[in-house]
Design a protein that fits this description.
Blueprint: E1 2-10, H1 23-38, E2 44-50, E3 53-60, H2 67-86, E4 111-118, E5 123-131, H3 137-147, H4 154-157, E6 165-171, E7 176-182, H5 186-193, E8 199-206, E9 212-216, H6 221-225, E10 235-239, H7 247-251, E11 259-262, E12 268-271, E13 273-274, E14 290-299, E15 302-303, E16 314-315, H8 323-338, H9 357-362
Parallel strand pairs: 13-14
Antiparallel strand pairs: 1-3, 1-4, 2-3, 5-10, 5-14, 6-7, 6-8, 8-9, 9-10, 11-12, 14-15, 14-16
Helix pairs in contact: 1-2
Bound molecules: fructose -6-phosphate (F6R) and magnesium ion (2 copies).
């Protein structure tokens, strides 16, 4: 039997402003997940937050895009949003863009990453969740992990990986996808995914046997809502070891920081800062954009758990090994903030096209006159 790992997330309200999901909302989500386990809908779960985003990590046997699983997530978000409304939390129900569930949370606001696979003898997975950024923030990371032999020694040393990987890339503006294989098409892949405004990696498979290796959420909230409603704050699942990049190769790109789009009002370049769960809150200029990484093992359809049934989760970035990246991120953050509203600290107008900037400029329109 195959196991499915699903992570479904939404911002349904936070405290204060867009900083962090408060405990009462996490508690509701944990309760809903517990009930779903009792009815046998899911096998196990882990609830956490990436800044102001509520994250539901679940394992089950129902496959990807399953209506019951997506409905469970939707109903959980609705319940948490109701609590957020009661507490008058900020942005209560923010990412729930429609009134009624219609079979799948895709296109309704929440972000989803899912993988279905036949379990190996042992199946490590790294779960990434980010706040104040967009799905293309994972382009650089996934490139490093799956296509850069200077990062991933296994691409050179592990005979099961020298065949390389296949990348499914979404052109979010045109709603179409293309699949490219590395190493043979590495440069074409880079030509696409370096353009983070348009292209984002959806899925990765091993060339050798088409085994699923990674899956990332590619929701573009602004494209769904037709206006700026917050960045998409993406999630990503990556399988590790025994013919996949090792967990250490998956985390090695975060020896350093890199810049991603998002941060304040989804309109600025910001350094991606790896943090442990305790620091998963966006404080400075609503950021800097933060990313958490959880190490889990999939065991017989479940998250490997202790005797009391609590999932065994490693909070990977809660480690001094990532202090350098954090310090670099803060250095860069301070440089960028000195530039305020000037490009390149601020995103280009194209990247901001769904924001409220055009509305602010509209009033100036009648005052422009022909340059003599
Ligand atoms: C970014 C984000 C925040 C808000 C900012 C303004 O994704 O959510 O940076 O854009 O705090 O929020 P409003 O417009 O709600 O006052
Ligand atoms: Mg928010
Ligand atoms: Mg968020």
């Amino acid at each position: 039997m195959k196991t499915t790992v699903s992570i479904i997330k939404a911002d349904v309200g936070s405290i204060a402003g867009h900083t962090v999901v408060p405990e009462p909302l996490l508690k509701i989500a944990r309760e809903k997940m517990k009930q779903a386990k009792e009815t046998g809908l899911i096998n196990s779960s882990f609830v956490f937050n990436a800044g102001d985003d509520l994250e539901l990590l679940m394992t089950h046997n129902k496959g990807e895009n399953n209506e019951e699983i997506h409905k469970l997530a939707w109903d959980t978000f609705i319940s948490a949003a109701q609590k957020a409304k009661q507490l008058k939390l900020y942005g209560a129900g923010q990412d729930l863009l429609t009134d009624a569930f219609s079979g799948n949370v895709k296109g309704m606001g929440p972000g989803v990453a899912e993988m279905e696979f036949k379990e190996r003898g042992s199946d490590p997975v790294v779960v990434f969740a980010a706040d104040k950024t967009e799905p293309a923030a994972y382009n650089f990371l996934l490139w490093k992990i799956f296509a850069d032999p200077m990062n991933t020694a296994g691409l050179v040393i592990d005979p099961r990986m020298v065949c390389g990987f296949k990348f499914e890339v979404l052109d979010a503006k045109k709603g179409r996808t293309v699949t490219l294989s590395t190493p043979s098409e590495a440069y074409q892949l880079l030509a696409l995914i370096g353009t983070t405004e348009h292209y984002m990696i959806k899925k990765i498979w091993r060339n050798d046997d088409d085994e699923i290796a990674a899956s990332s959420s590619t929701t573009k909230l602004s494209l769904i809502a037709g206006k700026y409603v917050g960045k998409d704050d993406p999630v990503c699942l990556v399988r590790g070891q025994s013919g996949f990049p090792s967990v250490g190769e998956i985390t090695a790109p975060f020896l350093h920081t890199y810049l991603v789009a998002g941060w304040m009002r989804g309109s600025h370049w910001g350094p991606f800062m790896p943090v442990g769960l305790k620091d998963s809150k966006c404080t400075v200029f609503d950021g800097p954009p933060r990313i958490v990484a959880l190490g889990i093992q999939i065991a017989n359809g479940e998250l490997a758990s202790d005797d009391a049934g609590n999932p065994l989760v490693v909070d990977i970035f809660e480690d001094p090994a990532f202090d350098l990246a954090r310090n670099e991120a803060l250095e860069l953050a301070s440089h960028l903030r000195r530039m305020g509203q000037f490009e390149p600290a601020r995103l280009s107008p194209e990247a901001m096209e769904y924001t409220t900037l055009p509305q602010c400029l509209k009033e100036l329109e009648p005052r422009f006159k022909e340059d003599e």
